[in-house]
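Exercise: predict the fold of this chain.
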Amino acid sequence: MNPAIHIPDWYRDRAYARERYARIAHWALAQHPFYQKHVTDPDRVFPVLTRAMLQADNDLLLNGHPETARTSGSTSTPVRMSWEAARSRQERLDTLLMIEWLGGALPSLSIVSTWVHAPDERTIDVVTPLPQQVEYLRQRHRADGTCSLITYPSNLELLSNYIIEQQLDMSFVRRVTCLSEVYEPRHDELLRAAFPNAFANVTYSSVEAGMIAVRCPHRPENYHIMAHKLGVEFLNEQGRPCQHGELGRVVVTDFENRRSPLIRYAQGDLAAPMHCDCGKILLPAMTQIVGKVQGVFRTREGRPIIFTHFSPMFRDSPEIGQYQVMQEAFDRFTVRCVPRAGAELAAFKQRVRQRFEQEFGPNLSIDYEILAEIPRAASGKFHVAICRIPE
């Protein structure tokens, strides 16, 4: 008989998740060297894993299995993962399930990073100039009726602004799916203006855990969790389970992967648990996905400050067209920006200082990098805010 495993509080009233968690935790303690090293509590409490812990012992996590995927490494050393074929099939089945929720498949074009996705007639690189993106989408529509677009929120924003400025007719697009980056309410507004007949579909996923949740087609403020394969905890600053609507750390357990298993892995994201009353999809839900904690700044006292508190100021500044903010230290920031033609930045810089001093106090150092374009990472992702303070 297996000795007792400590069950995290989040799972105790969730029979399916509790049983699946206990199964993978028992297996990991008996079979996997990474957890044999890291689970040192005599009560067999699995610690919350950070990305730094995975990076430090990545070879142990792989346990001799071949690497099948790695994170982008945009802001740190990549995490390398190994999935068996059955786990990869599960991801494909989840994609089919999502498409079923949306009413079926549509001919699509992906504008993503070809560093991650192999290019073909249905996949072009996200760095392709915007006029060419539009023209290729129109070509695919004429050739085979393509009416669905898959891309990153940051590219959707640039593409939508271009379409609006050029007054282009994109009414043939019926669905836009966004992935890999944070999707914010302003993206819905842009999408409606640029693609007036398109339904906005959004996924929440990671290289490490795959598809974690999908935006509810009926209650778009919520995301349904793929709870058949993943356990998702929401933990507050004290490490206790969040209440419904309370923002906390997203902590994922993969019930299926036995090559490089993730048990209580802190994704680096924030979100809140939520009950979705759509009545159509009988899976638990989450809301208020903030995105990578790398985009959450911190005060010297340890108080987290979500960058969305600042983003309207940057987004609505008439002097700049693109921006990226990095917190180098508790009182030191770098603002990278692309000025609009003929713009003077003195007023913009004054607003930035006043707003940041409200949150971080006086005596801040704010450096500026003036660029013609802010480049994407090699993965094709674009991070509008990056916190470089070690956890």
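Check your answer against the key: The chain is about 30% helix and 25% strand.
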